[in-house]
Amino acid sequence: MRIVAGAWRGRMLEAPRGSATRPTADRVRQALFDMLAHARWAEPLDGCHVLDAFAGSGALGLEALSRGAAHASFFETDRGALAALRANIATLGAAARSSVLARDATTPPPPPPGHVQCRLVLLDPPYGRDLITRSLPALIRTGWAASDALIVAECARHDTVPTNTLLAERQHGVAKLSIWRATLDSSS
């Protein structure tokens, strides 16, 4: 697993041991960030604050940082994944632009004072547990994510996402990427 593009292109990432996490494949990350770079509905990554919930190794958030995002906040609860995430941040020298929370994204704490709401939210939870529907309203309600943030969810091919207004959806093997803009009713 490696960073696909940007300042850290080609740098290797540590993957968590065991089967508790499922890192997003390089080709899927490439496809996602190509969409985000070229779609007319996407905002520029330069200077953006990003939230990588269910972060695992942090590959999605670190890819965003490599491509110019200003800051990434990572939520993760698995100890092995947290160790890999922290090692990847240290290896890339990204500590000043990263915040790691060993917390569940479905019950996030209030953000720290001075926190800038994230405009890009990356959700890659374990499949089949309805964690997107449970986490997104909590992340918006507590102020981690902007109420109109761009949401990117990776889920199982047959899982549903909590929106009727998709901007894009792509299948990648057993996974699918769904992208939409959050709305105020996402926070209820």
Automatic annotation (TrEMBL):
GO molecular-function terms, A-Z: 16S rRNA (guanine(966)-N(2))-methyltransferase activity; nucleic acid binding
Transmembrane annotation, as ranges: none
Gene3D superfamilies, per database record: Vaccinia Virus protein VP39
InterPro entries noted in UniProt: DNA_methylase_N6_adenine_CS, RNA_MeTrfase_RsmD, SAM-dependent_MTases_sf
First-tier enzyme category under EC: transferase
Entry EC number(s): 2.1.1.171
Origin superkingdom: Bacteria
Keywords recorded for this protein, A-Z: Methyltransferase, Transferase
Keyword Transferase recorded: yes
Keyword Kinase: no
Pfam families given in the database record: Cons_hypoth95
Cross-referenced PANTHER family: METHYLTRANSFERASE
Protein name, as recorded: 16S rRNA (Guanine(966)-N(2))-methyltransferase RsmD
